[in-house]
Amino acid sequence: MKLQFNQDDEIFRREIASWLEENLSGEFAPLKFRGGPGDEHMFPEERKRWEQRLAEGGWTCVGWPKQYGGRGLTIEQQVIFYEEYARAGAPGRMGHIGDGLAGPTIIAFGSDEQKARYLPGILSGREFWCQGYSEPGAGSDLANVKTKARFDEAAGKWLISGQKVWTSLAHESDYCFVIARTDPDSQAHKGLGFFLVKMDQPGITVRPIEQITGTSEFNEVFFDDAECGAEDIVGAPGDGWKVAMGLLGYERGVSTLGQQMAFQNEFDEVVALARDNGAAKQPAIRQRIAQAHIGLKLMRYNSMRMLSGDKGDGSLQREALIYKLYWATWHRELGELAMDILGPEADILAAPPYELNRLQSLFLFTRSDTIYGGTNEIQRNIIAERGLGMPREKRW
């Protein structure tokens, strides 16, 4: 595990920091610190243009191999990129799902034709992806999906029917990678396929889900014989679970360090508020601030340890299994701390149009952190069964 960076890495840090300072100006200045969790509905078109600006500077897909248009950065340099991106207050990435999940998965498991078709649009910042995993009756239990895919021999296409839920930014996406059951008689993780599906077609309906924040970045997505080309299944029918697990490894990968820098920005805002309104003088608040600081540092060190085992194929060491549970719980507690520091102001909005302030939005959104991406309960099962080798939970 490396906790320090060499001289070349620090030169690279100055390069990306300088580029961000220069480019987060003019039309992109209003995007600073916008578009993150709980704020993803803001400035979608402007953030798409920002993706294209990143692409022009060569700052999309920085970890992809050079042969696919990426920068081929080392793990250390990728960590620096994500840290500096968040430190600069650069906006939430509209291209994150394609850049960090769909692209690496296609590179690792896809055909040459799939790479040629889909990677350039992600790299250029012009095509955007969403994730079709969770379902109303399955939640975090990915192996319990009911969405079906049947192959129409006459048309030479897969036809997908079912429903996905909590699909982030589906209404802004061009494509969706979908887990569906290719064998109707299969159960659990067997008989699944991993499909690359075009969103703009008659067989797909997207409905927004309004949250307690009043925003609707999540959606329900309905598939009614949605078409997917025969060439657009990644791997073979039945390989869906293997591909999906590889993708989840990328989700726990190097971009987590950027997430932590965003957490650092939020933590700094909470501390500044405590100093300004006098809450920092309260011993109990000071203790909770100290605990949050320690938790954030531990999160970083464990991530560095976790990334030290990155093999480039989505597989990570067992330490990666605790990451989602840890950060989701920490972030939820930070939201609660922010409300306690705000005091009575946490419960009121001063004047029309009664928009939530940043810390109120933080608190409300963090209520979902321990649910999406795998609930805390599911995460504990994964840690027990896969990490510790304990007996599997009984299925009723």
UniProtKB/TrEMBL annotation:
What positions does the domain Acyl-CoA dehydrogenase/oxidase N-terminal occupy? 8-125
List the Pfam families hit by this protein, alphabetically.
Acyl-CoA_dh_1, Acyl-CoA_dh_M, Acyl-CoA_dh_N
The segment(s) forming the Acyl-CoA dehydrogenase/oxidase C-terminal domain are 238-387
Tell me which cofactor or cofactors this protein depends on: FAD
Q: Which PANTHER family match?
A: ACYL-COA DEHYDROGENASE (PTHR43292), ACYL-COA DEHYDROGENASE FADE29 (PTHR43292:SF3)
User: What residues does the Acyl-CoA oxidase/dehydrogenase middle domain cover?
Assistant: 130-225
**SUPFAM superfamilies for the chain:** Acyl-CoA dehydrogenase C-terminal domain-like, Acyl-CoA dehydrogenase NM domain-like
Keywords of the record, alphabetical order, are:
FAD, Flavoprotein, Oxidoreductase
- Protein name per UniProt: Acyl-CoA dehydrogenase
Q: Which InterPro entries match?
A: Acyl-CoA_Oxase/DH_mid-dom, Acyl-CoA_Oxase/DH_mid-dom_sf, AcylCo_DH-like_C, AcylCo_DH/oxidase_C, AcylCoA_DH/ox_N, AcylCoA_DH/ox_N_sf, AcylCoA_DH/oxidase_NM_dom_sf, Mycobact_Acyl-CoA_DH
